[in-house]
Design brief:
5-stranded antiparallel sheet; single chain
Length: about 450
C-alpha cells in the first residue's frame, strides 16, 4: 500500500510535469521562432543591400558594387550566400558559393518565399540553409534575389540551450521535491504525538488519545475525538457486559443452592435427574466467574505483552488450582498483535482445562514462526500429563458447532469451544493431539497478517 506521503509526492510531481512540460515546449518554440525571425530579418536586410548595390557597367551589363557587400559573402563556404538572376541570363552569385549552385527559383515582382533545405554537404561540411527569396524590380528590370544562411551553428546552440534547460528543469524538480519532502516531513511530524499515543493505547499504557488536549492538527482532530468517543463507549459497553455476566453468575449461586436443597426433598428417581441438571448449571456459573477473573478489566484494542500480562494470569490459575504447576516458555519482549482480551481468554481457557482435568506438570510455550511462503504468526502450545481424550473425540470436538462439554457428563474439554471461536475469528488453526507419553497437546496457530 502506498503511503500518504508517497501519494502526495507522486501527485505533486505529475502536476509539476503537466505544468512545466508545456511551458518548456512553449519556450523551445519561442526560442526557435525568435532565432528564425532574427536570421530572416538579417537575410532581408542583406537582400536590400544587394538590391542597392545593383548597377550597370560600361558595357550595359548588370553588376554589383563590392563596397556594399560584407566580407562574409567573399569567403568561400562562409555560410552566407546570395544569387541574383533574371530571365535574360543575368546570374550574379556570391564568391562564398564557389563551385556550388544556388537553388533555381523565379519569382514575380513583389512575390517572396522562405524555406529550409540542406545546404552544402561534403568537404567536412553539413550545412542547413535558411533561404529567403523575393521578386524585385530595379530600373524597370525584374530580378529574383535569393539569400541564404547556414543555421547549423544556431541549431547547435539551440540544442545546447535545450540540454541546459532540461538540466535546469531536472535540478529544479529535484530541489522542489526535496523542499516538498522536507515540508511533508515537518507536516507529518505533527502526527507523531498521535502515533505515539496510539502505540501506548495498543500496549495498554493509556485508555484514550487525549483528543481534548488539542495536540493534533486541525485536520485529524475530529478523527482523534471520534476515536476517543468510540473507545469510551466500547469500554463502557464491554465492561458493563462482563460485569453483568459475572454478577449474574455470582447471584445464581444462592438460588442454585436452594434448588439443590429442594431437590433433596424429591423422590429418588427425580433427585438424580434434578441434581444432574443443577450440576451442569453450576459448572456453567463457575466457568463464567473464572472468565471474568481471568480477563479482568476490559481494554479493547490493546495488544498482549507477555512479560506483563501473562504472569498475573498464571498467578490466578495457581490460586484456583494449587495441584497444578504451569511452566511457561516465551520471549520476555514478545508482543502479540491480536487483541489483549481475546488472547487472555484463549490462554485462560486452555490452561484452565489443563489444570482442571490434568493437574500436575503443564507446559506452556509461545513462540513466533516464519514459513517459507512469507507467512508469519504465533504458535501457542499447551501440553499436560492428564488422561487426554480419544482421537475420535478430537475430531468430533473440532467440528463447527460441536461442543464436547455439552455432550459429556463430566464436562471434559470445557472452554475449548470458546477457544475455537477466538481462533476462527483470527483465521488461525486449532489442533488437538496426544501428548507423549500421555496427556493432551493443544496447538493454536494465529497468523500475524490477518484481521478479525
Amino acid at each position: 500500500m502506498i503511503s500518504l506521503q508517497q501519494q502526495l509526492r507522486r501527485q505533486w510531481l505529475i502536476t509539476i510535469l503537466l505544468i512545466m512540460l508545456p511551458l518548456l515546449l512553449l519556450a523551445d518554440f519561442g526560442v526557435r521562432q525568435l532565432v528564425t525571425d532574427t536570421v530572416m530579418s538579417r537575410l532581408q536586410h542583406d537582400a536590400d543591400s544587394l538590391i542597392a548595390a545593383l548597377s550597370h557597367n560600361e558595357n550595359g551589363e548588370w553588376q554589383l558594387d563590392d563596397s556594399h557587400l560584407g566580407t562574409l559573402y567573399q569567403r568561400v563556404y562562409s555560410g552566407h550566400y546570395f544569387a541574383i538572376r533574371d530571365e535574360h541570363g543575368t546570374d550574379l552569385r556570391s564568391r562564398s558559393l564557389w563551385d556550388k549552385q544556388a537553388p533555381v527559383i523565379t519569382l514575380t515582382f513583389g512575390e517572396q518565399q522562405k524555406w529550409q533545405q540542406l545546404g552544402i554537404q561534403g568537404d567536412q561540411l553539413a550545412e542547413q540553409w535558411l533561404n529567403w527569396a523575393k521578386g524585385v524590380r530595379v530600373q524597370d528590370h525584374d530580378f529574383t534575389v535569393w539569400v541564404a544562411e547556414d543555421i547549423t551553428p544556431l541549431k547547435s546552440e539551440l540544442n545546447r540551450y535545450r540540454l541546459a534547460a532540461i538540466a535546469l528543469l531536472a535540478i529544479a524538480l529535484v530541489t522542489l521535491m526535496l523542499i516538498q519532502r522536507y515540508q511533508l516531513s515537518r507536516a507529518f511530524a505533527r502526527l507523531e504525538p498521535l502515533k505515539q499515543q496510539l502505540r501506548e493505547l495498543r500496549f495498554g499504557e493509556r485508555d484514550d488519545l487525549n483528543a481534548a488536549s488539542g495536540l493534533y492538527p486541525q485536520e485529524v482532530q475530529p478523527l482523534a475525538e471520534e476515536i476517543d468517543r468510540l473507545l469510551s463507549l466500547l469500554q463502557q459497553r464491554v465492561g458493563r457486559s462482563r460485569n453483568a455476566l459475572g454478577n449474574l453468575a455470582h447471584e445464581m449461586k444462592r438460588p442454585l443452592q436452594q434448588l439443590q436443597l429442594l431437590a433433596e426433598q424429591l423422590d429418588a428417581s427425580h433427585q438424580i435427574e434434578q441434581r444432574d441438571a443443577l450440576s451442569r448449571l453450576s459448572r456453567l456459573v463457575e466457568r463464567e466467574l473464572k472468565r471474568a477473573r481471568i480477563v479482568g478489566m476490559s481494554s479493547p484494542g490493546r495488544q498482549l505483552k507477555l512479560a506483563e500480562d501473562l504472569p498475573p494470569l498464571l498467578q490466578i490459575l495457581g490460586q484456583l488450582y494449587p495441584q497444578a504447576r504451569i511452566h511457561a516458555a516465551y520471549d520476555q519482549d514478545a508482543v502479540l498483535p491480536q487483541d489483549h482480551d481475546d488472547l487472555l481468554e484463549l490462554l485462560g481457557n486452555l490452561l484452565d482445562n489443563a489444570c482442571k482435568y490434568a493437574g500436575g506438570e503443564i507446559q506452556l510455550s509461545i513462540e513466533a514462526y516464519q514459513h517459507q511462503d512469507d507467512q508469519a504468526g504465533w504458535q501457542i502450545q499447551v501440553r499436560d500429563q492428564g488422561p487426554g481424550i480419544e482421537p475420535n473425540q478430537c475430531k468430533h470436538l473440532l467440528q463447527r458447532g460441536i461442543r464436547l462439554d455439552e455432550h459429556s457428563a463430566q464436562g471434559d474439554g470445557l472452554g475449548l469451544a470458546i477457544v475455537s471461536d477466538i481462533v476462527d475469528s483470527y483465521h488461525g488453526s486449532l489442533e488437538l493431539a496426544a501428548n507423549r507419553p500421555h496427556g493432551l497437546s493443544v496447538v493454536v496457530t494465529l497468523p500475524t497478517a490477518t484481521g478479525r
